[in-house]
Backbone:
């Protein structure tokens, strides 16, 4: 998570973040930072906000693009456990 905090706060490139994602990732991190509650992340619909299985763990995700998503916990209007995940689709 430190990587994304540094990226978000200072806009510094990092080898762990693919260069083709930097602009979109920055925009998504801005959205998450500005969100006061989960409903704020339902718009735009392209975020595809979803509660991940198992639901008891309370992890959510929004899409960054077709390949990556941000996974995080959002409890008591606080963000935690944020990470970038290479989203794999199962057929």
Residues:
């Amino acid at each position: 998570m430190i990587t994304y905090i540094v990226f978000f706060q200072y806009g510094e490139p990092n080898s762990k973040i693919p260069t083709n994602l930097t602009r979109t990732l920055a925009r998504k991190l801005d959205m998450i930072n500005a969100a006061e509650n989960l409903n704020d992340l339902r718009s735009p619909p392209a975020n595809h906000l979803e509660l991940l299985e198992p639901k008891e763990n309370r992890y959510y995700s929004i899409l960054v693009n077709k390949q990556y998503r941000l996974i995080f916990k959002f409890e008591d209007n606080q963000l935690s456990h944020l990470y970038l995940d290479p989203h794999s689709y199962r057929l």
Notes: Helices lie at 2-10, 22-34.
